[in-house]
Amino acid sequence: MALAALFLFVMLVLPLVLVASEALAKGWQAYQQAITEPFAVKALYLTLEATVLAVICNTIFGLASAWLLTKYTFRGKSFLGSLIDLPFAISPVVAGLFFIMLFGRMSPLYPFLRAEHIAIVFAVPGIILATIFVTFPFITRELIPVMEAQGRDEEEAAATLGASGWQMFRYVTLPNIKWALMYGVILCTARAMGEFGAVSVVSGHVRGKTNTLPLHIEILYNEYNFTAAFAVASILVLLAVFILILRNVIEWHAKRGVSHAK
């Protein structure tokens, strides 16, 4: 018990304390200046933009793919389920290289993209695509076990009574999966905000344009501006703590709903 507590303190609590102490090492004014500096603010906005768009896209995809994999039987179902887990199996850096090969100068699509003045890699669209790719299994994998346990009986009964597909989803499926869906959204959000590898490859590291918060922290650290780096890192820490609290609230409500159902 004591060893486990020591491990948690060293691996989780101590890093948070060190980030806070380093961020405030030169005082509150220096901290405030570091987090309100224009490049830091733009990096925060880009991080939030990529996160929101990734969560929206993955929520739609997660619902559709989980519904397909749990409510229908078709050839290639196992392969599709394995394909969804691909971002878990490969390095985010490799995922970023995929997008470089697909949309960069060596891509067959590059002449068309250049003619149409469409910038994907080393631009914001590439960052969003990379974020979507590395996070899209999270919501699907949270929904599939719940929807498999739910079965098809309720949807089939609703269809027999004349309910449309949207009515079945809204009044039958969604109430049963809402907590799993919210939990998946939380995990997807946390992963999207902290993504570094894939985004680092496709971003181009252009300050004020294609730098997310993790990339901005790396630049500040490499410039030996440690106080500013830890100050900006504290923003991610605060966001992570907020997400953790939100996750615990959702888990509490989910367990409370299960106990009431019993």
Can you describe this structure?
With 262 residues, this protein is an all-alpha fold. 81% of the residues lie in helices and 0% in strands. The chain is built from 14 helices and no strands. The protein has helices spanning 2-23, 28-36, 38-71, 77-84, 86-89, 92-103, 110-115, 124-135, 137-150, 153-160, 165-193, 197-203, 213-222, 226-261. Helix 10 (153-160) runs antiparallel to helix 11 (165-193). The two termini are 33 Å apart. The model has no long low-confidence stretch (mean pLDDT 87).
N- to C-terminal separation? 33 Å
Q: Give a short account of the largest sheet.
A: none
Q: Which spans have pLDDT < 50 for at least 5 consecutive residues?
A: none
What count of helical segments does DSSP give? 14
Coarse morphology = globular
Give the H and E element order. HHHHHHHHHHHHHH
Share of residues in strands: under 5%
Compute the CA-based radius of gyration.
22 Å
Total number of strands: 0
Determine the fraction of residues in helical runs and give it as a percent range. over 70%
Mean pLDDT value: 87
Secondary structure category: mainly alpha
